[in-house]
Amino acid sequence: MTKAIRIHTNGGPEVMVWEDVPTPEPGPLEALIRHEAVGLNFIDVYFRTGLYKAPNLPLIIGQEGAGTVLAVGSGVVGLAAGDRVAYAGALGGYATERVIAADRLVKLPDSIGFQTGAAMMLQGMTAQYLLRRTHAVQPGDTIVVHAAAGGVGLILCQWAKHLGATVIGVVSSAEKAALAQANGAAHTVIGHAALASEVKRITGGAMVPVVYDSVGKDTFAASLDSLAPLGLMVSYGNASGPVPPVELGLLAAKGSLFLTRPTLATYTAKRSDLERVAADLFAAVGSGAVKIQVNQTFSLKDAGAAHTALESRKTTGSTVLLP
Ligand code: NDP
């Protein structure tokens, strides 16, 4: 047997139950891994509440981890027992041991510890595709980053600055503003009520070519109002709730805007894309351009407390759950 956090129904943090589950066996093209650390992400909340539909119940939630390969199934090449690995984007993470499709694993460089690995794969690969592919940020760009002191947010601030961009970070408190600034945000705005007017002031009226908005419902309108003509609205999360249906004419009226709702799953669906995105992230972390900040750790069995902290906006940076 192994231990896991499972949900048997959707609901609040109390629906997560720490229980024995049978130790899985790796089938063809699969690997069995022992987690040394598990990543906490907002998507875990969406699966717990039911905003994102569970493929089956009971469900082991969690999408990210780092650990050691214990065994591989038939047909697996390039991986062996003892390898240090990490992954993001595969349900089943909140467990001491798990089976996973081997082609979703990447080898963790020796210089990157397990906790950092578990903290960075999902949030860091997200920052990579957002800044390098969804909109290829150029030196001299001024960009808006919401939840700038959060997990994805702190990585976006550092990486965008490294790329030569000027970041306007949106946060909810003075403490978070200071943290975002210490991590590369040139400007911070507290709350979104005055976002567009602040962006107008900071950019001398030009507004910005791209907004990275992970907050969703509450900030969608303020984000559109912050864009320059032909700007790109990247709505990549729903921390405040999903964005209601959009009247397309709004995009015309606000300056022929572009709108995308991207996911890491699409951007890393091909093995070659996963390897490229992960390699770019490892290089950014390895060079020191991006420092992964594990600002909270919890025991995996206390995942409920971790969810409560994340949902009540008490966390900053990344959070790791320890089996
Ligand atoms: P964060 O650490 O950023 O935590 C969420 C933050 O959102 C909070 O700290 C808070 O910052 C802000 N927030 C604003 N409104 C609310 C609200 N009503 N309730 C809770 N938080 C709120 O989480 P993650 O780094 O794990 O994820 C950030 C976002 O990115 C999430 O929306 C997630 O779904 C999304 N995401 C999307 C991916 C994709 O590929 N599409 C991949 C990875 C993450 P503050 O207090 O400063 O407002």
CATH-derived architecture of the largest domain: Alpha-Beta Complex
Taking the sheet with the most strands, its summary is: 7 strands, mixed
Structural class: alpha/beta
Bound molecules: NADPH dihydro-nicotinamide-adenine-dinucleotide phosphate
The CATH C-level class name of the largest domain: Alpha Beta
The CATH superfamily of the largest domain bears the name Medium-chain alcohol dehydrogenases, catalytic domain
Strand content: 25-35%
Order of helices and strands: EEEHEEEEEHEHEHEHEHEHEHHEHE
Mean pLDDT across all amino acids: 98
The CATH topology of the largest domain: Quinone Oxidoreductase, Chain A, domain 1
Q: How many domains? A: 2
Distance between the termini: 14 Å
Secondary structure: number of strands: 16
Number of helices: 10
Determine Rg (CA atoms, Å). Answer: 20 Å
Low-confidence stretches: none
Instruction: Tell me roughly what share of residues is in helical segments.
Output: 25-40%
What does this structure look like?
This protein is an alpha/beta fold. It has 10 helices and 16 strands. Helix 10 links the parallel strand 15 and strand 16. Helix 2 crosses helix 3 and helix 2 packs across helix 9. The chain is globular, with a radius of gyration of 20 Å. The protein starts with a strand and ends with a strand. 47% of the residues are buried. Bound molecules: NADPH dihydro-nicotinamide-adenine-dinucleotide phosphate (NDP).
